[in-house]
Amino acid sequence: MNALAWDWEVFTAAVGDAVWAPSIHNSQPWRFRCTQAGIDLLADPGRGLPACDPDGRAVRVSCGAAAYNLRLALAVAGAPAEYALGRAGVLVRLTPAAARPANPQQHRLYREIRRRHTNRSPFSEVPVEAAAVARLVEAAHDEGGWLHLVTGGKALTDVAELIRTADAKLSADPAYVAELRAWSSAADQRVEGVDRRAAGAAPHPAELLTRRDFGGPAHDTTRELSREPLVAVLGVPGEAPADEVRAGMVLQRVLLTAADLGLAAAMFSQPIEVPAVRERLRRLLGRADAPQLVLRFGYAPTTCFTNRRPVADVIEPES
Ligand SMILES: Cc1cc2nc3c(=O)[nH]c(=O)nc-3n(C[C@H](O)[C@H](O)[C@H](O)COP(=O)(O)O)c2cc1C
Predict the structure, then answer these.
(1) Which of 216, 246, 197, 305 is CA-nearest to residue 61?
(2) 238: exposed, middle or buried (C-beta count within 10 Å: 0-12, 13-18, 19+)?
């Protein structure tokens, strides 16, 4: 029998880290396969979200984020990978690179994989230091993407308005609402979806940035309604499926960098999910590329973590 590209234990341990990536509605739409040629990351066809993601864009972004974790885990294990995007039916193929120790930055980001989480709680009014903001922008750039800071009251109000418009449009679609409910749950022990504790309080009409309504408890009136959050839009050059996978890698590198800086992060993809609003956002930013995600960063206490499915559920068995 020919040897696999990676030792099976190294592979399964790396997948154990990869699954802590963010994914749309915590749907974990990925599968991993280790062969003689390398590790393939594939979309799980049974885990698409037809109402909010009919083209599978968010699935590819989610898988890209998992691929970034996988690369980082292999690098830290001393068995780094090269990667290729865009093979038929395979979102990412990792192949062994020359063995070398991981650098300090890779170690630091790796340590954040299981500490990072989406934070839907109120953020403090304390502004994020300029040096930290610069690190986030640099992280996106180093991974081949961009992070466009939304600065100034007018730009912020305009982006907030696009989020609100998109959220209202989505929420008027019964299929979208039913899908969102199916992936939100009061149960704390579910291994997928966004449970009520992670969902945070229900969005309040006066909130500047309209959060997706995962069915959390009634809004807490003590919640801050910050008027000056740090908001950024993430993107990559190009809009092909492989570019969307790369956007996921950029996203995860930015999120792990934020966690390493002690920053909380929240995501808003409603304006990306409504094509006309996405186009308005692109024009507002003056970008050639379509935006892939709106992010908010700031300071906030750690909140609840979502769960993950067991590794055995996401790997193709050893053959
Ligand atoms: C492509 C993409 C889009 C997302 N959109 C939103 C969103 O609109 N609102 C939100 O609260 N979280 C959003 N998230 C965050 C996921 O809900 C979150 O990653 C998932 O529930 C897992 O939780 P964790 O990030 O805390 O590990 C998005 C994540 C991805 C990858």
Answers:
(1) 246
(2) middle
Specify the pTM.
0.97
Architecture of domain 130-298 in CATH? 3-Layer(aba) Sandwich (3.40)
Q: Is 268 in the pocket of ligand 1 (CB under 6 A)?
A: yes
Rounded distance from Cα 94 to ligand 1 centre (Å) = 25
Superfamily (CATH) of domain 8-115: NADH Oxidase (3.40.109.10)
**Which residue has the least CA distance to atom 10 on ligand 1?**
267
Could you give the maximum distance between any two Cα atoms of the chain, in Å? 64
| Residue 24 in contact with ligand 1 by CB distance below 6 A | yes
CATH 3.40.109.10 in the chain: give the residue spans: 8-115, 130-298
Which ligand 1 atom is the nearest neighbour of the CA of 58? 1
pLDDT tens readout for residues 60-102: 999 999 999 999 999 999 999 999 998 888 999 999 999 999 9
